[in-house]
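Field reference: sequence -> structure
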Amino acid sequence: MSLYNKYRPKVFTDVQGQEHVVATLEKSAVSGKLAHAYLFAGSRGIGKTTIARLLAKELMTRGIEDQELKKTIQKGVDEGNIVDLLEIDAASNRGIDDIRELIEKVQYSPVIASAKVYIVDEVHMLTKEAFNALLKTLEEPPEFVFFILATTELNKIPTTIQSRCQCFPFRHIREEDIIRRLQYIADQEHISIDREALRAIAAASEGGMRDAISLLDQMQSLEDIGIEDVKKRTGGTGAEYSANALEAISANDKNAILQSIAKVEDAGVPLDVFLRHLLKSTRNALHESISKNETTAGNLRMLDVLLKAIRDMRTSPVPGLVVEAALLTLCTDDGASIPTPVAKMETPKKVEPIIEKKAPVEEAPVIPEPTHSEEAQTEELKQPEPEASEVPSAIINAPEVSIESIRQSWTSVVNDATPSSVKMSLKNGRVTEFENNTITICFSSAFHRDKVRGVDASRTVEGLFEKIFKKKIAIHCKLEEDAGTAAAMPVSEPKQEMVNMADAAAEIF
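Structure field:
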């Protein structure tokens, strides 16, 4: 028998880490105020099914005075061979026919126990029709029938089902509670293991008691279990590699990023675990920046990239490639990169050309002919006109307006744009040219193009450019042309536009 089954709690007092659930259920059992439907929600391996069985014991032995019969029922629940307890895996029995069969059997009275209990695991896997069929029975079950539903994805349970159940959220078990339980099992089984190894097992299990005990079971054949033995079997937690990756990103060192990912893969650390450690570090940095009233644009950008990478990994045939692309995106120097500091664009060598370039435009009526000497031009600029006195100050504090400087500031404009729907549409665009004081932005989607060229949105974007370059600049939004063939495909374009609109809605909500 596996250690997990051997040391599964037999009474409520043996349960670790879910005291808030146990205390409520125990008081309900003592007072006799038990509901007919419960919903246990939480991640895997934290005690949902275990507590469901303990609750089933209470329900099935209520009012039974015969101690021998009570022990027989309790033993049957522990071994899973009592006829009045039905454990159903909704992942395998998810259709409406399965639920209809269950509902038909609900009407029969219990054979041995005082109640019939149905434990439905992974209940979120039921189809919509199956949920609807179950709804009426949950609301008005026979007096002797009780339902205990368990799920790892509460958000997939219809609110109509949740409203008919007493819902109990299960939390991750604390590392200290896991270590305490592992130490007890190790003592009972005469397993030699040091404290650091126990802590490494608890950390690798990420709050799941079942995974922790299973890992201890896997290594119990070793004579003396140390932390290195745990790392060999878990590949480490990934935390030791995240610091190196963050340093490489900060230094814009692409080779170091690739090397850090290679080390993670060589060590056998799951890439999603590695990304979660990066997310945790970035989240902490975000909170710190907010507390210090510092800019959060870079942290938010990194969070977006990491969250998208975790989603993309689930469907990618090469997860490592997804991680590499995500982290390299964070240190590139093109329009998709983290905003470049403004100081990098304020170089002195650009000031003089700007003055020579701008003076004729701003002071056209009073600028002398090109044949004038340099001294004459200087004297003209010093004339006591209000406009002339303001121009040099504004020009010196602004970067040169060019296609390169516009592209460098593009990410900053996107991050500062409001509302979020406009920001999301701007991410779909790219700057293609700058001519006649107008920036052309191309979009692959007509939906995003129309969103940005709206009156309020375009004024917002133009205002952001004016804030950077200290002058009014217009924007022009248009669709990208695919070698002149875009107009030749009127049938497929609406379909693609609907896809883009759906993607846009998904990102917003």
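Note: The first strand starts at residue 37 and ends at 41.
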